[in-house]
């Protein structure tokens, strides 16, 4: 955030997060989800927003997907 605009930081972080989980069809969905979580952290000015949304997402995915 010190060197890049917020939007660029969110996009870059999201792409890296998606690719870190492997180059599969899920990478795009993971990158979009990471972007939403990063936006929540910036909007709330707290890492708790990202942590909470990540936990809720994990809970939903683990409950409804095989």
Walk me through this protein's architecture:
By secondary structure, the chain is mainly alpha-helical. 79% of the residues lie in helices and 0% in strands. It has three helices and no strands. It has helices at residues 6-20, 26-44, 47-64. It starts with 5 loop residues before the first helix and ends with a helix. The mean pLDDT is 89.
Q: Characteristics of this structure?
A:
mainly alpha; flat; 66 residues
Q: Secondary-structure element sequence? A: HHH
- How much helical structure, as a percent, in the residues? over 70%
Beta content: under 5%
Q: How many individual helices? A: 3
- Mean pLDDT across the residues is 89
- Uncertain runs are none
Euclidean distance between termini CA atoms: 37 Å
Beta strand count:
0
**Radius of gyration of CA atoms, rounded to a whole number:** 13 Å
Structural class: mainly alpha
The largest sheet, given as strand count, sense and whether it forms a barrel, is:
none
Label the overall shape: flat
Question: Secondary structure elements and their pairing?
Answer:
Elements: H1 6-20, H2 26-44, H3 47-64
Helix pairs in contact: 1-2, 2-3
Could you give a quick summary of the protein structure above?
The protein has 3 helices and no strands. The protein is mainly α and 66 residues long.
């Amino acid at each position: 955030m010190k060197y890049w605009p917020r939007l660029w930081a969110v996009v870059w972080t999201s792409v890296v997060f998606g690719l870190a989980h492997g180059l599969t069809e899920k990478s795009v969905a993971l990158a979009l989800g990471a972007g939403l979580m990063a936006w929540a952290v910036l909007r709330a000015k707290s890492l708790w927003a990202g942590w909470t949304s990540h936990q809720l997402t994990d809970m939903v995915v683990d409950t409804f997907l095989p």
